[in-house]
Amino acid sequence: MLETAAGDFAWDSAATIAAAVAAGRVSATHIVEATLARIRERDPLLNSFTAVTERRALARAQALDAARAKGEKLPPLAGVPFAVKNLFDVAGLPTLAGSKINRDRPPAERDAALIERLEAAGAILVGALNMGEYAYDFTGENIHDGPSRNPHDLDRMTGGSSGGSGAAVGGGLVPLALGSDTNGSIRVPSSLCGIFGLKATYGRLSRARTFPFVASLDHVGPFARTVRDLALAYDAMQGLDPDDPVCADRAAEPTVPHLDKGIAGLRIAVAGGYFKGKTAEAVAAVDSVASALGANRDIDIPQAERARSAAFVITASEGAALHLDRLRARAKDYDPAVRDRLIAGAMTPAWLVVKAQKFRRWYRQEVLKLFAEVDAILAPATPCTAPLIGQETFKLGDVALPVRANLGIYTQPISFIGLPVVAVPVPLTPLPIAVQIIAAPWREDVALRIAHALEAQGVIAAPRPSF
Amino acid sequence: MKRKAGRKAKSARAKRPRPARAPAKTKPANSGDALVAASAQALGLTLDPAWHDGIAFNLGLILRLAALVDEFALPDEAEPAPVFHA
Question: Is residue B85 a part of any domain in this protein?
Fold first, then answer.
């Protein structure tokens, strides 16, 4: 092993790391030690980790190195460090879900399903990540653990609720992370931190042994700095899991083999109307992606504003139902911003929630019709680049809107009906912002192909921060 | 005959106020405070008075957005999205 010449692989992709480990150019132990050193050095600035699983990670790395020494073929993500939003169960740790209250939970007895699947593919868990309390958040701020900080400007938000995931990947601490997305919590941090995020089709990736928020809207998925890494992680995690009643009984459909197919024959449109950007950066990002793809057609996603509203109502109500007993007993232990929203959700009349669920089915049918005409739709991921930490409102046109509730205005109408989306970062200066590539259900391959073609053109990329 | 959901018909209805439905149900701009107090009691929640404004603000926001959904006409036969499989 040429450990001294190996470097720390801080900005290398998961694919590069796995290839280097498999070829014996570097040991998994070296990769993990360098990762742990980086976390110790930089995370005091980013505040992205809430737990580092050092002993476990080193043991896992040593086991991989021993397997290679015995001549065993290593799996596709061998030696790749990753971390998870702290709503994923990690054996031996209480599952915080960003809260104070959950610190009283007993340690999890078993890892979340997706951790098991990534580790089966050779990846190595190095820790748990900061997040907005109970995932009811688009900012990445956390009153108990402090805000995760944007690697491109430490005074700015990461976006949430998977804020630590955005900071850790965008800040070069790990090449891969997992998060959850109920209304945009993978896509919003991807946008603000300038990285790639995949929110797969609802039911595609197992949520088993993760702390829930809104059962009918919850998704989980990966973050990475390249499209190939996103696809590698996604492929490693697909497949039925009886432990998640929502997980689809559908065979895995690998996407990596399709990445290089290009965009020939794909019909790509730009979402019009509600999704037309109202800030210069959102407009510039969508324009640059659309132009590179030759997407010169607008398409109307019908009743998108109503869809966002219905998602908002269902979220408030289902989230409140999950938390009502805790609110009765320990309301003072919640982040006040989350507590107020949850209590308001508990007070929402049931008939409005039922109507929102009825509307949801109608909206799904209407939107699915669009995929007879197009294969993918482009839309902004966020209305703006990263706001300052603590900023309460932002301007959209002439209107000042609360940040916490509105950073997801473009993501909510899409996850509402479970469509797969790849959020792709456009490296604008001074701050990045992402575009959503939205595909038909189960066509993650289409969205990833398009993203890969854009990446090859240099239109999208995860910019390396200078801190 | 089934009422059919159609975009044209719906958007026309969406713009028309519905006199039969009491606006207070979905737009309690001034009844929000009363609703918060009554709901808290019914839900068995003990609220610190300092929380009241934040809760009322959020409830107002939810109900304002819910009104957009409520005004969108759908047939009686429209099924809600989640489906339970026995």
Answer: no
Q: What pLDDT score was predicted for residue A398?
A: 86
Distance CA A243, CA A230 (A): 24
Encoded amino acid at B71, one letter: E
How much is the mean pLDDT over chain A?
96
How near does any CA of chain A get to the CA of B27, in Å? 12
Nearest to B69 among A332, A347, A355 (CB): A355
The active-site residue, picked from A148, A165, A185, A415, is A185
C-alpha span between A47 and B22 (Å, rounded): 49
* B48 domain residue, yes or no: yes
Q: Measure the CA angle with vertex B18, ends B14 and B19; round to 5°.
A: 165
Mean pLDDT of A441-464: 98
Q: Looking at chain A from residue 193 to 232, which residues have their Cβ under 8 Å from any Cβ of chain B? A: 216
What's the average model confidence in pLDDT over A261-271?
Answer: 97
DSSP A60-78: HHHHHHHHHHTTPPPPTTT
Element (H, E) at B69: helix B52-70
Domain range enclosing B69: 27-73
Distance from CA of A147 to the nearest CA of B (A): 21
- A288-305: pLDDT as tens digits: 999 999 999 999 999 999
pLDDT score, position B21: 44
The answer to whether residue A85 is catalytic is: yes
Domains of chain A: 3-457 (3.90.1300.10)
Nearest Cα residue in chain B from A366: B7
Asked whether the predicted pLDDT for residue B20 surpasses 90, the reply is: no
Residue B78 placed within a domain? no
Whole-number Å distance between alpha carbons of A416 and A94? 30
Which residues make beta-bridge pairs with A436? A379, A423
Spatial separation of the C-alpha atoms in residues A452 and A437, rounded to whole Å: 11
The total of structural domains in chain B comes to 1
ipTM computed for the complex: 0.92
CB contact at 8 A, A131 and A97: yes
| C-alpha atoms less than 13 angstroms from C-alpha of A4 in its C-beta half-sphere | 0
Residue-wise burial string across A345-382, b where 16 or more C-beta atoms lie within 10 A, e elsewhere: bbbbbeebbebbbbbbbbbbebbeebbeebbbbbbbbb
What is the Rg, in whole angstroms, of the alpha carbon atoms belonging to chain B?
Answer: 17
**What is the DSSP secondary-structure string of A238-277?**
-S--TTSTTS--------GGGGGG-STT--EEEE-GGGS-
pLDDT tens-digit series, residues A224-256: 999 999 999 999 999 999 999 999 999 999 999
- B84 is a domain residue: no
